[in-house]
Specification:
The N terminus and C terminus are likely disordered. This protein has one domain. The two termini are 24 Å apart. The protein contains four helices and seven strands; from the N terminus they run E-E-H-H-E-E-E-E-H-H-E. It is of the alpha+beta class.
Length: 143
């Protein structure tokens, strides 16, 4: 067994394996939480990234934006299973975590930043059914 990007134990190689959203959340949370129901609608591959406690961040390789970048999405299961565009690309994700880009860290808050708003909106349109975030009700989640 390996260690997942967030520290969880998984049976796959961490960070380098491409996984579907359902497989990724199952590996990270030990259950799907309903994210697998989004696979037929969203497609794309998930590559786990570091940082986060209850929430997880992953590079989502679905449809790139007009600049050729793929978004970093965030999933969380605290109040209800939740998915959002957290960063408009790996470039911004790395910049924030290197301390080069200021960010308050609230879910999806870069959509309000004039530098990234257009890219965040484009990723929502291309990769998130046109929504900046998706909240799955507990009735949708596997228990």
């Amino acid at each position: 067994m390996g260690r997942g990007c967030s520290g969880s134990t998984i049976s796959r190689s961490p960070c380098s394996n491409r996984r579907s959203s359902g497989a990724y959340t199952t590996d990270e949370y030990d259950q799907d939480w309903g994210y697998g129901t989004l696979e037929p609608k969203l497609g794309g591959d998930c590559f786990g990234l570091h940082f986060g406690a209850d929430s997880r961040r992953f590079l989502y390789v679905g449809k790139p934006d007009s600049s050729g970048e793929h978004p970093v999405l965030l999933c969380d299961t605290d109040d209800a299973p939740y998915l959002c565009v957290q960063y408009p690309g790996i470039d911004v994700y790395l910049g924030v975590h290197a301390g080069l880009i200021e960010n308050e860290g609230a879910y999806g808050d870069l959509a309000k930043d004039a530098r990234y708003a257009a890219r965040m909106k484009e990723h929502a349109k291309l990769n998130m059914l046109g929504k900046p975030d998706i909240e799955l009700g507990y009735s949708d989640a596997e228990t």
